[in-house]
């Protein structure tokens, strides 16, 4: 889709301004691309070779700032724009589609307003064994059901409260539905708690969103933990989703291990078990197609080597074996069209890429 010329002109104008920004304002970003080969991507034994954007983390640039107001109070903001490093297009059909918020912070915590990450995202990602330090990556097994376990990641028109007290970090979030005549339709509501003490990290989060017409409520939750011993860290997690319309249910459980082989070389591996049940349908078809129950298993391995403090290269391999209705969800997400005539499908992928921070 073409973006309005004004968006590109604004983005171009912001960069030189950021280069001469006032103290307390930071320009930052990540550029990540990878070459990926995927076998049987559509369930009908068609393979794909592609240059993918955001191989091990989504490419982005942003501005963030902190002004000391005195008395321990601060004014804070963050603007973050996603882009595709393979073709240069803006992501999310918005200039600052990743984050756009402003607020206040102090000893009492922080209160921010705008487009922001929900609690499921901020807490749930902490326990995915393959994503530590980078964020989600292009072929993450958590996407088996169609990237549904994080409730759209970000909340528009939202108010978010966060505070850390000792080993506990708390987030509460609310997104206004802005539907005329209703205070409930289109709203989001959630929160979570993370506990971190020494080598132990535990977390739980919940978010729900009502559809604009009020006919469906999506409820997502996440529980997980990690434990570090020397150079190794073990991870365990479970995420779930329930849709009130049709009572469709989804769940994924995972376990994995990360290990710092050398100061520059980190390896990780994980196993994922996905299940769906109830009146499950396709996500992106104009007329939803019923898929029903199913399950899938996935194993993935990642090796990441730091060439410097800012630049890394990585290699990743994964295999997904889907059965029943899970084949439809899996193939629709990756190939665009659900393979509804296939009861059993195996997809294998290999990816090699580079990531640079600035």
Structure description:
With 358 residues, the protein is mainly beta. It has one domain (32-357): Porin (Beta Barrel), CATH 2.40.160.10. It contains 3 helices and 17 strands. The protein has helices at 5-19, 119-124, 326-335, and strands at 25-39, 48-53, 60-70, 73-82, 99-106, 109-117, 154-165, 168-175, 188-197, 200-210, 217-229, 232-243, 248-260, 265-277, 294-306, 311-324, 344-357. The chain has a 16-stranded antiparallel β-barrel with strand order 1-3-4-5-6-7-8-9-10-11-12-13-14-15-16-17. Strand 12 and strand 13 (248-260) form a beta hairpin. The longest helix is centred in the first third of the chain and has 15 residues, at 5-19. One of its GO terms (molecular function) is porin activity. Residues 11-318 form the Porin domain. Its main location: membrane.
Distance between the first and last residues' Cα: 28 Å
- Count helical runs: 3
CATH topology term: Porin
Give the overall silhouette: globular
Overall domain count? 1
Based on CA atoms alone, the radius of gyration comes out at 21 Å
CATH architecture label: Beta Barrel
Estimate the helix proportion, in percent.
under 10%
| Major beta sheet, strand line-up | 1-3-4-5-6-7-8-9-10-11-12-13-14-15-16-17
Look at the structure and give the mean pLDDT: 90
At the fourth level of CATH, the homologous superfamily is Porin
Low-confidence stretches: 1-12
Q: How is the biggest beta sheet arranged?
A: 16 strands, antiparallel, barrel
Number-wise, the strands total 17
């Amino acid at each position: 889709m073409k973006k309005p010329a004004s968006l590109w002109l604004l983005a171009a104008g912001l960069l030189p301004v950021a280069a001469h920004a006032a103290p307390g304002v930071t320009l930052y970003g990540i550029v990540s691309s990878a070459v990926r080969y995927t076998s049987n991507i559509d369930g009908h034994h068609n393979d794909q070779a592609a240059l993918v954007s955001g191989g091990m983390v989504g490419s982005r640039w942003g501005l963030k700032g902190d002004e000391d107001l005195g008395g321990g109070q601060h004014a804070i903001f963050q603007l973050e724009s996603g882009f595709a490093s393979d073709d240069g297009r803006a992501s999310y059909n918005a200039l600052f589609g990743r984050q756009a918020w402003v607020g206040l912070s102090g000893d009492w915590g922080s209160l921010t307003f705008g487009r922001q990450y929900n609690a499921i995202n901020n807490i749930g990602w902490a326990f995915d064994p393959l994503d530590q330090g980078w964020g989600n990556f292009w072929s993450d097994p958590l996407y088996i059901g169609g990237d549904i376990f994080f409730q759209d990641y970000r909340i528009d028109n939202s108010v978010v409260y966060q505070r850390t007290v000792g080993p506990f970090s708390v987030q509460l979030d609310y997104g206004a539905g802005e539907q005329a005549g209703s205070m409930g339709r289109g709203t989001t509501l959630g929160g979570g708690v993370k506990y971190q003490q020494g080598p132990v990290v535990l977390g739980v989060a919940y978010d729900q969103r009502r559809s604009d017409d009020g006919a469906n409520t999506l409820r997502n939750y996440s529980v997980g933990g990690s434990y570090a011993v020397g150079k190794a860290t073990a991870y365990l997690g479970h995420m779930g989703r329930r849709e009130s319309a049709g009572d469709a249910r989804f769940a994924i459980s995972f376990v994995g291990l990360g290990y710092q082989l050398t100061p520059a070389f980190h390896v990780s591996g994980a196993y994922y078990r996905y299940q769906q049940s109830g009146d499950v349908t396709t996500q992106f078809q104009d007329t939803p197609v019923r898929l029903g129950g199913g399950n899938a298993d996935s194993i993935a391995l990642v090796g990441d080597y730091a060439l410097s403090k800012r630049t890394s290269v990585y290699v990743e391999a994964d295999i997904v074996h889907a059965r029943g209705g899970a084949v439809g969800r899996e193939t629709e997400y990756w190939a665009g069209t659900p393979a509804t005539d296939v009861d059993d499908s195996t997809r294998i992928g290999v990816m090699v890429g580079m990531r640079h921070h600035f």
